[in-house]
Amino acid sequence: MRPTRVATYQRTVHASLARVRENVLDWEHLPWLHPETFMHVRLLERRPDGFRVETATRGVAAAELLEIDVAFESDGLAYHSRTVAGRGAGTDIVTRLATRGPHATHVAVEFLVPDVAPECADRIGAFYVGLYTRLSGIRTRR
Fold first, then answer.
1. Cβ atoms of 111 and 125 closer than 8 Å
2. Assigned CATH topology for domain 4-136
3. pLDDT in tens, 115-138
4. Which of 20, 28, 71, 135 sees the fewest Cβ atoms within 10 Å?
């Protein structure tokens, strides 16, 4: 089944494009900045365009590990956060970046989830938007 776009979310962050990229590539920060979501993180692979990590989310059995792969597209203006193993495998969160000034970057996020029944798309989309709202610490628009 093709992935379904269950939600989109947009915001402007008060950081340069270079700073946003630097933050995205900092795989180690996940459990330290977001302890309410991530239990741990272990680097599996590091590349110039991204990384692959093993992690587990809070509220899920510790034995349920996830592998997440983050990779920038060649233009550096979009990146994919893909769940490649574990719960949610096949999910692709696509983030597009656009400079809005020397210290501002517009962020547009699409949540693409596989095997979603049409009647469940809004509920699943609300989950992802809620998760990203918590991770970013700001309010967003769906």
1. yes
2. Alpha-D-Glucose-1,6-Bisphosphate; Chain A, domain 4 (3.30.530)
3. 898 888 889 888 888 877 766 544
4. 28
Best CA proximity match to 21, nearest among 100, 78, 83: 78
Query: Where exactly are the structural domains of the chain?
Result: 4-136
Indicate the residue type of 106: H
Residue 52's Cα: distance from chain center in Å?
13
Question: What SS3 class is residue 34?
Answer: coil
**Strand 66-72, strand 78-85: pairing:** antiparallel
Helix (H, G, I), strand (E, B) or coil at 23: helix
pTM: 0.85
Q: What is the pLDDT of residue 111?
A: 93
